[in-house]
Design brief:
The structure holds 2 protein chains of 2 kinds. In chain A, strand 1 and strand 2 form a beta hairpin. Chain A has 11 helices and 2 strands. By secondary structure, chain A is mainly alpha-helical. In chain B, the strands form 2 sheets. A 6-stranded mixed beta sheet of chain B has the order 6-7-8-3-9-10, sandwiched between helices. In chain B, strand 1 and strand 2 form a beta hairpin. Chain B is an alpha/beta fold. Helix content of chain B is about 35%, strand content about 25%. The chains are: A mainly alpha, B alpha/beta. Chains A and B meet through helix 6 and helix 7 of A and helix 2, strand 6 and helix 3 of B.
Chain lengths: ~290, ~230
């Protein structure tokens, strides 16, 4: 029982981070229908940006804010300079996907070239062990869970209660109509790329205070991001949150019966089974 | 003259759909464009509002060349297009759909007053304001689509087959509402397959066949015609 509770706690911590990754990619995909493969690069870029500022002796919190700012700008730039011109020329989804993949690979290679392959830890965050009965976790874990949920709640509040949020939901549900009533979809697209990049930057920060950054950390984050979205249901941001929690807990509990290296296999197996039974995802709606 | 279209050619996917169409709408006028299915009426409306690009010809709104302007820009100038389908945001409530129409063009400052006006014309929308748009009936969805359009006080309303899919009673109600909107001074260019409704409402009528406007006549003359079959 003690092991189960410990693993469940670990699953909730990981799941919270996965939920944040899911909404970061989901808000972009749900609104723009762009398979933003370069999201993984933004994740890596955010980690290294924060690291670079700390190496320049900037304190941790300002480094975090500057890193998030540059990651947000990078995400907007990818949309504005790469995807938007392609959409204007009516490029196919496949062409845009390949471009995104190119940005991801080239970006990662560039980071590898500049910073080398070594692991880079983000130091300066106080880490203490907290014990609650048989369950132990660290202050980093607690901070991760709290920040993830605060950010997710803020995102839902923003989407539900602000003019910009309403416009994002409108473009997401009916981009053609949005144009007819006067919404500039291109601006909304840049905005959601900015929001998605900010969120993935926060996830990258939380991950880097726990584990050191390497140039290829973005791929795993990207896989988790879109699996949670398709698992939870495209078009439903709440689905991405649910998908993230399920994946986090499943990934954690599976080590009770299987070695850790099988965790990705289990994640894909869950996605496969859900899509087989409910192709639209757990909270997705059937398209008539 | 509010809207002037001259010798307009439109095509997409390599095929020409509209051939040399010319029409005009004066301020406050109610004009109908009728024709059979596939005649090019919706294409013409989508081109006027800026959604489709023109091949050649001229589209002027209040004297300004609007051929290269997007629908988003034209809405802010008072030229509003209501699509026959896809005219709502299904995952937003009735109130949010209406609010959004105002926010999108920056007219939120008189939103409360405009909402009152829309609810006066469509009382059912007030009762359903918290309901998600995709749960409304077909007729209520049409009302909401028109409500969103009139909320922003357009000078010219382009309506694409608003009666499509409505029962005869609802068509009659819709006709009354359109008449009221027209009486308030909004110019309307109505595209309809419901010929009887369109002719009864409009002051001037254009008839379109296979991409060309083949007739322009007044309400009075069209009402006098014994048969309309020869036009289609």
């Amino acid at each position: 029982m003690g092991l189960f509770l410990q693993l469940l706690t670990r699953g909730i911590i990981t799941g919270s981070l996965y939920a944040l990754l899911g909404v970061s990619w989901g808000i972009i995909y749900n609104t723009t229908r762009t398979f933003h493969f370069a999201h993984g690069f933004i994740y890596t870029f955010a980690s290294y940006s924060i690291l670079v500022f700390t190496w320049m002796s900037v304190p941790l919190i300002p480094s975090l804010l500057l890193g998030l700012f540059t990651a947000t700008l990078a995400g907007c730039a990818v949309e504005y300079f790469a995807y938007l011109p392609m959409r204007k020329k009516s490029a196919s989804q496949l062409s845009i996907f390949l471009t995104a993949m190119g940005i991801m690979i080239a970006g990662q290679s560039l980071i590898h070239l500049v910073f080398g392959p070594d692991s880079r830890p983000l130091e300066g965050f106080p880490e203490h062990v907290i014990s609650l009965g048989t369950v132990t976790f660290t202050t980093v874990d607690l901070f991760t869970v709290l920040l993830c949920w605060i950010v997710i709640v803020c995102l839902f509040a923003f989407l539900g209660h602000t003019k910009a949020g309403m416009m994002i939901r409108a473009v997401s549900s009916n981009p053609e109509k949005a144009t007819f009533i006067g919404i500039d979809s291109r601006r909304i697209f840049v905005l959601v790329f900015g929001i998605g990049s900010l969120l993935v930057g926060i996830a990258a920060f939380l991950s880097t205070i726990d584990k050191p950054a390497t140039p290829n950390i973005g791929l795993g984050a990207l896989l988790i991001s879109f699996i949670t979205v398709f698992l939870g249901g495209v078009g439903r941001l709440g689905g991405a949150v649910l998908g993230g929690i399920i994946l986090g807990i499943a990934e954690s509990l599976v080590i009770m019966v299987l070695p850790t290296e099988y965790k990705m296999m289990v994640i894909f197996l869950i996605l496969f089974l859900v899509v087989l039974i409910k192709p639209e995802g757990l909270l997705g709606k059937k398209i008539a | 003259m509010l809207l002037e279209v001259r010798n307009l050619d439109v095509g997409y996917q390599g095929k020409q759909v509209v051939f040399g169409a010319s029409l005009r709408v004066d301020a406050g006028e109610f004009v109908a464009l009728i024709g059979h299915n596939g005649a090019g009426k919706t294409t013409l409306l989508k081109t006027i509002c800026g959604y489709l690009k023109t091949g050649s010809g001229d589209v002027r709104y209040r004297g300004e060349d609007i051929r290269n302007l997007s629908p988003a820009v034209n809405v802010k100038k008072g030229l509003v297009f209501v699509h026959q389908e896809k005219s709502l945001f299904p995952n937003l409530s009735v109130l949010e759909n209406l609010q959004l129409a105002a926010y999108a063009i920056g007219k939120a400052y008189n939103l409360e007053q405009r909402l009152k006006e829309v609810y006066r014309i469509f009382p059912i929308l007030k009762d359903r304001e918290k309901q998600m748009a995709n749960t409304l009936s077909g007729g209520q969805q049409k009302q909401l689509a028109v409500g969103m359009a009139i909320l922003v006080e357009p000078q010219l309303l382009l309506l694409d087959e608003p009666s499509l899919g409505l029962s005869p009673n609802l068509v009659k109600d819709l006709g009354n509402v359109l008449k009221e909107i027209s009486n308030m001074g909004t110019a309307i260019l109505l595209v309809e397959q419901n010929v009887k409704m369109a002719i009864s409402l409009a002051q001037r009528i254009y008839v379109m066949r296979t991409g060309q406007i083949i007739l322009e006549d007044t309400h009075e003359n069209m009402m006098k015609r014994e048969s309309l079959w020869d036009l289609f």
